[in-house]
Amino acid sequence: MISTSSSLSSSVNFFGPKVVILNGRASSPRSLQFRSTPRISASCASTAERTASHISLISPSASLYEVLGIPMGATCQEIKSAYRRLAREVHPDVVANGQRSQTSAGEFIKVHEAYATLSDPDRRADYDRLLCGVRQTASYPMAASRHRATMASRFAGHSRRTWETDQCW
Amino acid sequence: MAEPAYTVASDSETTGEEKSSSAFPEIAIGIDIGTSQCSVAAWNGSQVEILKNTRNQKMMRSYVTFKDEVPSGGVSNQLSQMKKSKTLPSLCPMKKGKFGVRRGMNRVAQNLDPYCLCSPDATSEHRTLQFESYSLYPQERPSLFVASVSRMAEPAYTVASDSETTGEEKSSSAFPEIAIGIDIGTSQCSVAAWNGSQVEILKNTRNQKMMRSYVTFKDEVPSGGVSNQLSHESEMLSGAAIFNMKRLIGRVDTDPVVHSSKSLPFLVQTLDIGVRPFIAALVNNAWRSTTPEEVLAIYLVELRAMAELALKRPIRNVVLTIPVSFSRFQVTRIERACAMAGLHVLRLMPEPTAVALLYAQQQQQCVHENMGSGSEKIALIFNMGAGYSDVAVTATAGGVSQIKSLAGSAIGGEDILQNMIRHLLPDSDILFSNHGINEIKAMGLLRVATQDAIHKLSSQTSVQIDVDLGNGSKICKVVHQEEFQEVNGKVFEKCESLIIQCLRDAKVDPEDVADVITVGGCSNIPKVKNLVMSVCKRQELYKGMNPLEAAVIGAALEGAVASGINDPFGSLDLLTIQVTPLALGIQADGNSFVPVIPRNTTMPARKELVFTTVRDNQTEALIVVYEGEGKTVEDNHLLGYFKLTGIPPAPKGVPEINVCMDIDASNVLRVFAGVVLPGSKNPPIPFMEVRMPTVDDGHGWCAEALQRTYGSRLDLVTVQKKI
């Protein structure tokens, strides 16, 4: 628990200022929020960079179910097929030739983490309990992953293999 | 790099796309790369003219700035104030090699021939960036320059293709270039491409789909198995030909795989100090040195020429299959060989995942109506070739192949062959290690006879081996199936353990596996088939694919998908979700390896862990990045290291050192490290972003040098996992 909280808070501090550059939004209040409620927070997902897709319709504080676009009572089958459907929308390999390759890695990571949690019965049960407790403002520590997703986009300029390719020679 | 690769490269160029320009002799341009300023000049037909950039400058400041996502140099970039070049930290004199002058770049830079570089060491990759910018110029014949630049680093590719569309290749730019698939096997290679409606395996001029993987140096110009025809198998074993380069590439001379190659007919010498092995081919009674990268590059040049001939278009983008067990360092060597051959690696796919993609396509065609219903099929793919064995477990539905787990090892048919040779001639290692002319001949004869016997044992229960080694000794022996299995017991045990590990990692019971697929040359061995079936509790294997062609077809499918090709019939409605084959982590808690991204993590991935200092007032931390499965760092591959300095003095265990690893959509690994003091909001120092791997050739040496320099003090600067 301690390690989780430190990981979250530090990740915000670590990358926070970069988000500001990207979004033009202040990050320090968010990092403070993380500090006071490490496991529950408003998400820092950047809505600005979202473009039209299922994902973009999700509010920043979306639950993992909302990320996958499924009801809370969804069966394992439904989770899997939702994951596959979304993978075909947001996976970098699919969108690599479009305009959105910059953000797709982050979006895919988010979709995959939602799937990884919900497809594991134990982790899903834990998450469901957490979700019931703090339904209003909450999202799971996955908020952190959403935060990372924006970070991934921060580095997305590198998503093509670029000039560094030969660096280890 | 030695000459032949380039000779071959330029040879094929003149036969290829640039034939039209070959009517004129190419006039080399002159470049003066100064520490402070650069300039370019060319003979314009009557005199020398100094070329100007778009801002009408003849002399351009020598620097590259990294302030934007895409770095830009003084050729294209305009400083708002000249003073800035002294003050901005991003600007630095390149010639001094602040970023290191890399030998490899030097070699690739030779591809600039016949452009003359008058600088004393025209090597830095940063300088090549300037060349790249030049390629945008409206020069007389930009395509010439572009073409040679395109053999360099990748931004060059980007720029080159941008400017190419305005040039001679405009016609082809209407269609996106479809990447071809190449399966570089230890023993055989093949090339396939999407032809608009399906994948077609390309044939060479002798109508062969599968070509032996070797390059012979017996003539002045080396030639590979694509163009060269062996009159007899033993010709490959005369010492003049290098083969098994896939087993040797990116390995240091302490590697057991390198040691097992010492009994091959060509020369493999080791010093056992963690540097690259010395490899040489016998040419006119002399050992002529080469490298696995060079051999592979020569071979790839031939493959490329063959594909260009078959497809009647220039080839630049490729999807290559690689073994699961390849380290990131080995991957860079493959990429390097491709760059030398003028190929751009669009994707590198672990071999069984290429097979998984083909399986996904077949399943989708079988049950098209089932798409999206969520009913998935689990398949286990076992691939055993001459050099490597790989296993993958994949969950397939609706054209999406989700890799659950991967496992792989450098064992294969070559090990089986060497075990048999040792069985037939117990002192063969000693006999062949001195590489005398007669020994090489004897070794070749024995190798051919043994290989033949192994092939026969795939269909019969015993085989008679009769071989005269020419030095007075003869081998006459009947080998039974049981004997063969006993001799190779360890190999088969390893195969079993790989499959079991892969199933366990995927959290899949053998009963849940719908299809078991075996591919690769060794899948013909009855014992291999049996062991796969028995581990997976199965009576029969999947029959839908050719075991020798599955990987290359999968690679070509991925090439079409990744090139953005759409198929009206949905044959390319495919996606592979890859996982990391090996764990990535750092050294911490002494010499422990602490994974940050575990094995079989879905890619792209981003994970982080928090570490802390081990001493009071520790101000520096060495982040040493490793890849592998070992518990201690010694058992893993060193990828690189960097130092985090300026940690604010604090009691041990207080500063939080955040290490984040990011694998992006192109499988590029970046390591970030930053410091946080609890209670403070802003990080005290900028965080580091380092692209891995950073270690050069003797990566075994680097690890030892670290140990030697820091010894027991090393833990002063390493970190421990924060609890």
TrEMBL record, chain A:
It comes from the Eukaryota. It holds the Pfam family DnaJ. Coiled coil: none annotated. Residues 63-131 form the J domain. InterPro entries: Diphthamide-biosynth_chaperone (IPR052276), DnaJ_domain (IPR001623), DnaJ_domain_CS (IPR018253), J_dom_sf (IPR036869). This is Chaperone protein dnaJ 11, chloroplastic. The lineage of its organism: Eukaryota, Viridiplantae, Streptophyta, Embryophyta, Tracheophyta.
UniProtKB/TrEMBL annotation, chain B:
It comes from the Eukaryota. The keyword Protein biosynthesis does not apply. Pfam families: HSP70. GO terms for molecular function: ATP binding; ATP-dependent protein folding chaperone. Keywords: ATP-binding, Nucleotide-binding, Stress response. The keyword Transmembrane helix does not apply. Residues 1-21 are annotated as: Disordered. Belongs to the heat shock protein 70 family. This is Heat shock 70 kDa protein 8.
